[in-house]
Amino acid sequence: MAGTGTGTGDDGGDCTIARHDFGPRCFAGEAFFVPSNDGDEDDGYLVCYVHDEGTGESRFVVLDARSPKLDVVAEVQLPGRVPYGFHGMFVTQAELLVQQQ
C-alpha cells in the first residue's frame, strides 16, 4: 500500500496515508475502495488479493479504510492462486439490479 504519515491532498490540505504489512513474502494486488452505505466519504473498506510467495496461497482481504493501520476486518483463504495483475471490481446490489433492467 503506501507509507504511514501525512501528505498533501488535491485541495492542498493534509491527508493521511496508511500502510498495512501482510507479512513476509506476501504481496497485495491493487486495492479497491468499497464505500459503506450512508457513511462519510472516507468511510468504507479496502479489498484486495494477497499472495504468499512462501506458501503459494492466496487470500481475499478486507481492510478498514479509516483505521490508521488498515486493520483487517476479514480474510478468506482462496482455493487457488490469484495471479498478480488480476483485476476485479465491487458492485453493489443496487447497481446489479439496474444492470438487470
Automatic annotation (TrEMBL):
<keyword id="KW-0223">Dioxygenase</keyword>
<dbReference type="GO" id="GO:0046872">
    <property type="term" value="F:metal ion binding"/>
</dbReference>
<dbReference type="Pfam" id="PF03055">
    <property type="entry name" value="RPE65"/>
</dbReference>
<keyword id="KW-0408">Iron</keyword>
<protein>
    <submittedName>
        <fullName>Uncharacterized protein</fullName>
    </submittedName>
</protein>
<comment type="similarity">
    <text>Belongs to the carotenoid oxygenase family.</text>
</comment>
<dbReference type="InterPro" id="IPR004294">
    <property type="entry name" value="Carotenoid_Oase"/>
</dbReference>
<dbReference type="GO" id="GO:0009570">
    <property type="term" value="C:chloroplast stroma"/>
</dbReference>
<dbReference type="GO" id="GO:0010436">
    <property type="term" value="F:carotenoid dioxygenase activity"/>
</dbReference>
<keyword id="KW-0479">Metal-binding</keyword>
<keyword id="KW-0809">Transit peptide</keyword>
<feature type="binding site">
    <location>
        <position position="87"/>
    </location>
    <ligand>
        <name>Fe cation</name>
    </ligand>
</feature>
<keyword id="KW-0934">Plastid</keyword>
<dbReference type="GO" id="GO:0016121">
    <property type="term" value="P:carotene catabolic process"/>
</dbReference>
<keyword id="KW-0560">Oxidoreductase</keyword>
